[in-house]
Amino acid sequence: xxxxxxxxxxxxxxxxxxxxxxxxxxxxxxxxxxxxxxxxxxxxxxxxxxxxxxxxxxxxxxxxxxxxxxxxxxxxxxxxxxxxxxxxxxxxxxxxxxxxxxxxxxxxxxxxxxxxxxxxxxxxxxxxxxxxxxxxxxxxxxxxxxxxxxxxxxxxxxxxxxxxxxxxxxxxxxxxxxxxxxxxxxxxxxxxxxxxxxxxxxxxxxxxxxxxxxxxxxxxxxxxxxxxxxxxxxxxxxxxxxxxxxxxxxxxxxxxxxxxxxxxxxxxxxxxxxxxx
Length: 277
Prior knowledge:
The protein has helices spanning 124-207, 229-240, 265-268; strands at 33-39, 44-46, 52-53, 58-70, 73-81, 88-94, 99-104, 106-108. By secondary structure, the protein is of the alpha+beta class.
């Protein structure tokens, strides 16, 4: 193991360094070929044995660079072998359609979404027409979606308005009930006030009547110097009326009276002895 990592090499005595010349190998003519590991880009059926090769199966393939180009994009060709009969299968890249083209040894399975023209390759005009139709359909779908969104928005607005109307109606009913109650309370208070006023008038009417049931009239004297005959007649009539004097109670005084004590001994049956002196 130590001889494998030596730094000095053995040179024989007859070694001539000038005899060694640098020789370049001959380049291979033809396309450049390299070995790569890839997966099948599409499902296919082998033409030799009928074996189905599904998409994504791994192969050791030979990658070949072709002279064909799409604008500045180089196209590559891949060589694989069938997993059952080892027949050679060739396919290459298609940058124009962003796909692959099966050239030899196998047949690509039918894919309806790949060629919309019933298996025919569409021209530039057909492709443009198809893109315009798809764009128009997309616009129609966008308009339909916008209409659906607008309809939903209108429904939400209508629901919100209904909720607001119902809430306002409920508030109005509650306000009417409160006003009715307030009016009823006011009516009761007014009735109580009128009843109290009637009672006060009745009490005043009773207080201003005399002992004999005669009504006390208020005399209005005019001290002004008036020559009006009607006023003189009224004064004469007032003087002819009978004046009834009402005995008014004496005004209250603030003097404290002497309270006499009651003799309760007789009520209790106690007899006092007469004084001897």
